[in-house]
Amino acid sequence: MDNPMSQRQALPIGIQTFESLRSSKDDFLYIDKTAQIYEMTKLSVGYYFLSRPRRFGKSMLCSTMQVLFEGKQELFEGLYIHDKWDWSEQYPVVRIDLSGINYENLESVKVQLENSLLKNCLKHGLSYEDLILKGLGPKFGEMIEALYQKYNKKVVILIDEYDKPIQDTLSNDDDLASKSLDVLRGFYSAIKASDQYIRFCFMTGITKFTGVGLFSGANNFNDISLDKRYASVCGFTQNELDNCFGDYFDGVNMEEVQAWYNGYNYLGDRVYNPFDILIFLDKGAKFDNYWWDSGQPSFLTKMFEKGAYETYDLENLELSSQELKQFTLSNLNLPSLLWQAGYLTITEEIQEPFGGSSYVLATPNREVRMTLNMLFLISLTSVESNRLLKRNEAVRSLFKNDLGGFEASVRAMFAAIPFNNYVQNNIQKYEGFYASVMFSFMAGLGLKCRTEETNSAGRIDMVMESPTHIYVIEFKVNAPKPEGDERGEALDQIHMKKYYEPYLNDGRNIVLIGMHFSEEKKNLDWFKAEELS
């Protein structure tokens, strides 16, 4: 896979198994990840946990490991691992995939785990009825031991999307997520108890919850989610796009591809969202929110509503290593959850003076930035998405420097906020509310926005950029309405503190905008713009 291909290979869209991909008569594209797989599997025993967002290739990774341990040598011809693996050794493989259904109650969790045991028993010629111990965890352990006795080989265990039952129930108001976690803890406890029968165990998921039990004890799982060696084990690197996709990207603006779909950082080479890239190419290189549209997590809206987060905080967050990697159901951390789910990424690692690391987080790319901010806007304002369809007029106005059109779009957006949204709280009294709504409104349209920009004189409320202009904006709530040619408090503050100075050498035109909002009107009370001469 190191050399450019002269002909296009078929895109493996929707294919979840390595065997189907490699044995098909169709020449499907496969990006060779077996060097990282070999690094994990070359020792005589190993327990690994990998957290990655949905649709990032975790299932394909598990499938590749499965046929590797089953000794299907012909599927690996031409790949890195082919001449390094001992093909004379085959191992019984237990594959458990919890991603297949939506978990609506505790019974569905138990049924799916029981079905997984039944499928593995059938695969290996064991009788599920012969597992005499009570409880899903004990039966799992009993099956592992039975496989060891049958084959006289240690067992390989591959668990895909271990936390799907918890993800599906996070947004519930009851304690269903906690009950689901208890069931999973009991089931996975069999892994620790069966250590002497296990050759290799690999587990994937989106989140890592502390207190589950499988991440502690004698066979402590090695969390490789931020291990540089495995940073690109899921996802596509720039080098892979350049060298493995043939002429698929001929004539495509790669800077735009990077802006839309790249940016995921696991402390190694940055990676593209693989689902986005494959669908993007299949749709004739048309940019769209493919990953986001494939399924939005239901817990996000409720987490936004419960958390006291201003939207622009999500573009410059700092978390400790412990906060980033794990949390408990009783202490859900929105930024950590957003990182693990793929809506934030690491932009900087900070080595602390007394050991350990902290991480700065931001959205990874344009797709996530736009869709996440639009979701946040809907959560903040309770405005239905179909009522925001005219929001694009705001960006079109800015690109034409039509400030009258921009003002009209902002007024229309605030006018669409239901009155009850204000009655239920006092958020309309504070500048932070209007700043959050404005940031989500504009960033959700793909416009480059920054808030709380700091200079020597203070902090600028908001800066927006178009190809030809830079807009320096200050917000005020319940400020006196200017008369005559007065600038008003907001514009006066911009001039007095010279918020525009950092941009004087940019080359683009600079526009200063003051916005006064009224608690009574729940909308703009006054809008004034000046182009800096």
UniProtKB/TrEMBL annotation:
Provide this UniProt record's keywords sorted from A to Z: Plasmid
InterPro entries with a match to the protein in the record = AAA-ATPase-like_dom (IPR018631), P-loop_NTPase (IPR027417), PDDEXK_9 (IPR012547)
Can you give the residue ranges of the AAA-ATPase-like domain? 12-215
Q: Which domain of life is it from?
A: Bacteria
Q: In its UniProt entry, what is this protein called?
A: ATPase AAA
Q: Which species expresses this protein natively? A: Persicobacter psychrovividus
